[in-house]
Amino acid sequence: METTATTHLPSDYLPILIQFAAALGFVIFAIVVTHLIGPKRHSKVKDAAWECGVESVGNARTPVSYKYFMTAILFVIFDVEVIFLYPWAVNFRGLGMEGFIQMIVFMTMLMLGFYYVIKKGILKWE
Amino acid sequence: MNEIPEVIRTIPLQYYLFFSSTLFVIGIIGVLTRRNAIIIFMCIELMLNAVNLLLTAFSAYRSDANGQVFVFFIMAVAAAEVCVGLAIIVMIYRNLRSTDINILSNLKW
Amino acid sequence: MNSIILLTSFGILNLFIGFSKSKKIIMPLVLLFLAIVFVVNLTGWNDTQTYFERMLTIDNFAIAFTAVVVLTTILVLPFSQSYIDQQNDSLAEYYSLLLFSLVGAIMMVAYENLLMLFVGIEILSISMYILAGSDKKNLKSNEAGLKYFLMGSFATGILLFGIVLIYGATGTFYISEISSAATAQSNNELTSPLLGMGLLFTLIGISFKVSAAPFHFWTPDVYEGTPTFFMAFMSTVVKAAGFAGFYKLMSVSFAGAQNIWFPTLIAMAVVTLAIGNIGAVAQNSFKRMMAYSSISHAGYLMIALLSFNDRSENAIFFYSLAYSVSTVAALGILKLVADQRDDVSYNAFNGLGRTNPLLAAVMTISMCSLAGIPLTGGFFGKLFIFSAALEQELLWLIIVAILMAAVGFYYYFRVIIAMYMREPSGDRVPVGSVATFALIFMTVLTFVLGIAPGLLSNIL
Q1: Which end of chain C, C or N, has fewer beta carbons within 10 A?
Q2: Which residues in chain C are closer than 8 Å to B54, comparing Cβ atoms?
Q3: Measured between alpha carbons, how far is C267 from C219 in angstroms, rounded to an integer?
Q4: Residues C293 and C280 sit within 8 Å (Cβ to Cβ)
């Protein structure tokens, strides 16, 4: 097994390239051909945006509410902290009690931040 | 299953170096030529990710975990930067209704 | 280390104190916190400790610079009185960000591993991005925030690329181990291109942060747009911590590879001095002049960086202390005056000598100190830097610096002329009692540094 791992040459990746070209080629082929051979009929109903059968309302390019944005920002922060949890969890036994206490301190800081955010009213939706 | 560092090492180190440098340069060119604050910001993220990739490659080649730990810190710091940066950009958008940096010319010498 | 823990907990505590109704209690509490940190920090003197697998070393160097940045913050705080009077909603957050950014500053002066340098720089910078744009309705402040953010994170990217290349060449992030690798390589005349590029990128990244030319372009714009209170913090704490970190990197890691970076840094020092001083002459706005002045002081500090002997550490320490005290005094007065007269140009100071003799006197002394007149701290700061450079036989560099210091007289003295020789452009400027005390303290400190420099000139 070790021998195969070290003998990859750039030419070994040729099948991937061929596969890639084939996939791309098929997509382009399908798009072009359907455009050419498909019938084109326009009507008001047919050109309208289809939204699960419900009549569509307004423009799709309207500004998104500020609330979504705040939630997204909070998500980014709290989401990324997990990368520190992952290596800790892998080495949980090796790090022992000291590592556990350190992680508790870390999570406490995070939770204090979370509590602060909630208390500040950022997650209040009116 | 091979160890992941071994898999990384099957590709010569120069390839990682050239690839990361190319990404990094694309990021720099983007920062210097684009005029939209959000796109500039994305280019900066691209620079950081080029750095992450190179760190991982070096780390695997030297069998030294320090480089990968550094990547975690870069990711965490980049997330903090994203939050602050997006908040600043939104603040400007609310005041000016635009994120084009050419509008920002109040401060000149 | 204790000061890092204390500052972090105080910062978090302070965020929650901010939920209380009364805004008056916050500033005295923060001053108390900082005083505790200052004392706790000094108790570690002569007792070198390492933490986090040798990633942080709290030695006398770190303690001295921590003392400078904490003291500067204590002296800046009284000038936030107007925020308290206006019942600013974000007051507690501002103070907490200042406390958190101090943590970053301490990490920058105590680091032993490039990871800590990076995290320290980022903690400091991210707090500063927020504070630069903290005046949310003011377009100039918005613009300053965005410019600082984009430039700062761009510089971070470059710095990181440099760190990675150094790691690739040497296989370590510890600055002492990088040193042996760098020395070995440059002795063999086989300087690894990776190491050379890494050093170059790191230099560019840090020069961005300490606003050394030719990477200074953001400085005047950002400083002008930033609220004056935070500018006082930015132009002192960031610079002191930045140069301490810069010096540590160069002296510990790349002392052996001196032939690679020495010419580059000399050129940068000359350009920084020229751009800072000549740019400052052209300004009509006092605030913008102070921004250029901070660039020119970065130039003087770079000379200390270049001289590179046992004196330069002390010279950087003494210079940053003297510079920080005078700059905080000058910008504090600007804040008080601009709040009342709504103007940051030289004209705002017209006739201040008649309406507020105390403010005018303090301003005069701090301008003299910045210009480097004898009997003030700034004079001995420059003297120590020049004498350190003289040992390194950098005579022509000293002559350039002295010429540029002479240019400095022109723009520093313009304020003094405006204060004493023009008709008053407004009424008496109200000054709070804490701010008065801080101003008097800074004046006394400037004189102490200028009359008895021996007290602090040889402590490192």
Answers
A1: N
A2: 161, 164, 168
A3: 19
A4: yes
Neighbours of C385 (CB within 10 A): 27
Instruction: Say which DSSP state C428 is in.
Output: P
Counting every residue written for chain A, the total comes to 126
Instruction: Tell whether C12 is within 8 A of chain A (Cβ).
Output: yes
Instruction: Please name every residue paired with A51 in a beta bridge, in sequence order, or none if there are none.
Output: A54
Cβ–Cβ gap C12/A112 under 8 Å? yes
C161 touches chain B (CB under 8 A): yes
Span B25-30, average pLDDT? 94
The predicted-structure confidence for C61-107, as pLDDT tens digits, reads as follows 999 999 999 999 999 999 988 888 887 788 889 999 999 999 999 99
The interface predicted TM-score (ipTM) is 0.94
Q: What is the predicted pLDDT for the residue at C83?
A: 83
* Domain residue ranges in chain C: 2-457
Contact C100, C131 (CB under 8 A): no
Going by C-beta distance under 8 Å and a sequence separation of 6 or more, which residues neighbour residue C187? C256
Average pLDDT, chain B: 86
Query: Where does B34-65 have alpha helices with state H?
Result: 37-62
Which pLDDT belongs to residue C101?
94
Residues in chain C closer than 8 A to A112 (CB atoms): 12
Token representation of residue C204: 């560019």
Distance separating alpha carbons of residues C295 and C213, to the nearest angstrom: 8
Cβ atoms of C323 and C297 closer than 8 Å: yes
Q: Could you tell me the domains of chain A?
A: 65-125 (1.20.58.1610)
Sign of the dihedral defined by the CA atoms of residues C305, C306, C309, C311, in that order: negative
Two structure tokens written together for C261: 């970076």
The position carrying tokens 């022109």 is: C410
The stretch C267-292 carries a mean pLDDT of 91
Rounded to the nearest angstrom, the gap between the alpha carbon of residue A103 and the centroid of all alpha carbons in its chain is 27
Which site among A80, A108, A112 would you substitute to test the C interface, given the most C Cβ atoms closer than 10 Å to its Cβ?
A112
* C58 three-class SS: strand
Contact C442, C366 (CB under 8 A): yes
pLDDT, mean of residues C110-114: 92
Which residue on chain B is closest to C154 by alpha carbon?
Answer: B44
Contact C221 B88 (CB under 8 A): no
What long-range pairs does A22-25 form, CB within 8 A, spacing at least 24? none
Q: What is the DSSP letter of A97?
A: H
> Residue A7's pLDDT is what?
62
- CA distances to A74, A86, A109, A110 from A114, rounded to whole Å, are 9, 20, 9, 6
Query: pLDDT by residue (tens digit) across C434-447?
Result: 889 999 999 999 99
Are the beta carbons of C275 and C213 closer than 8 angstroms? Answer: yes
How wide is the angle at C-alpha C151 spanned by C-alphas C122 and C55, nearest 5°? Answer: 20
Spell out the domains of chain B, with CATH numbers in brackets. 11-100 (1.10.287.3510)
Residue C345 backbone dihedrals phi, psi, to 5 degrees = -85, 180
User: Any idea which of A66-70, B94-98, C107-111 has the lowest mean pLDDT?
Assistant: A66-70
- Is the predicted pLDDT of residue C338 greater than 50, yes or no? yes
The arithmetic mean of pLDDT across residues A101-108, rounded, is 92
Name the more confident of C35 and C52: C35
Q: Is the pTM of this model over 0.90?
A: no
Residues in chain B: 109
Q: Which residue carries 């913090």 as its tokens?
A: C233
DSSP character string of C118-139 = HHHHHHHHHHHHHHHT--TT-H
The nearest CA of chain B is from the CA of C278 a distance in Å of: 13
